[in-house]
Hints:
Radius of gyration: 18 Å
Order of helices and strands: EEEHEHEHHEHHEHHHEH
Largest sheet: 6 strands, parallel
Low-confidence stretches: 1-6, 226-239
CATH architecture: 3-Layer(aba) Sandwich
Family: Belongs to the NadD family.
Domain Cytidyltransferase-like: 21-200
EC number: 2.7.7.18
Number of strands: 8
Function: Catalyzes the reversible adenylation of nicotinate mononucleotide (NaMN) to nicotinic acid adenine dinucleotide (NaAD).
Strand order of the largest sheet: 5-4-3-6-7-8
Mean pLDDT: 88
Distance between the termini: 16 Å
Helix content: 25-40%
Enzyme class: transferase
CATH class: Alpha Beta
Bound molecules: adenosine-5'-triphosphate, nicotinate mononucleotide
Amino acid sequence: MAGARHRSGATLISSPRRIGLLGGSFNPAHGGHRQISLFVAKALGLDEVWWLVSPGNPLKPKAGMAPLPARFASAMAQSRRAPIRVSAVERELGTRYTVDSLAALRRRYNKRAFVWIMGADNLAQFHQWHRWRDIARAMPIAVIARPGYDGEAIVAPAMAWLGRFRRPLAAMRRPEGWSAPSLVLLRFDPDSRSATAIRQADPGWADRLESASLRDGVTHRPLGGGRQGPMHSGRTGTSA
Ligand SMILES: Nc1ncnc2c1ncn2[C@@H]1O[C@H](COP(=O)(O)OP(=O)(O)OP(=O)(O)O)[C@@H](O)[C@H]1O
Ligand SMILES: O=C(O)c1ccc[n+]([C@@H]2O[C@H](COP(=O)([O-])O)[C@@H](O)[C@H]2O)c1
């Protein structure tokens, strides 16, 4: 945590930047991702949300998963003019399991305070994630209500353990509330958008996206591996 000397001689302690991490397949990204990110940022007083475009969810089949550059390009399009950075840092780190990605991110960005964000559908199967308790020990978790999943989420097998760390929103807004494990359940305007519905309605969505010249919003490195064509590059929000 950074400290600065005040004229009076007292040391002013500045709070670390608060970052929400929304990991996802983004196959493709949609308005629901944007909406929940903006809601959580406001509710928890976040400085930014980082969208971690996954090289591949370990629990999802490869079939039907668009290439990473296309998913990344869709995320760039959905996050425009919002305090959201789109990153494929997991590919760079060589991590696929969230527990490993979060450990690496905490080491690399050790001046940031992170919170893991996920929809209620993921809470329902959280107990199947690799070393899921260690994810909860690494940083607070914010779960967003999602139409069709809320009943399942509250009786999720992981809740037998995670439920005892449930905190009210007010506690999470205080800096000391960011201890882990902590779980906050958030309910905003329900958003029924899903990537599944978009793929069903528009199976060719990935073919229309130009994914050359993409640049990682967190590491600022070129993404590479895309087709040639005009696609906006760079980042949204402020500098990492
Ligand atoms: N409408 C929504 N409401 C709440 N959470 C959402 C919503 N859409 C996505 N999320 C959450 O965002 C994260 C990334 O989601 P993902 O990229 O898998 O999109 P998806 O719409 O859930 O995709 P799919 O339908 O292919 O499973 C997940 O934690 C998911 O629960
Ligand atoms: O680490 C795991 O075991 C694990 C299992 C399932 C999902 N995840 C992560 O959960 C996030 C949401 O995935 P998805 O496909 O539901 O968007 C994404 O970052 C995945 O890598 C992670």
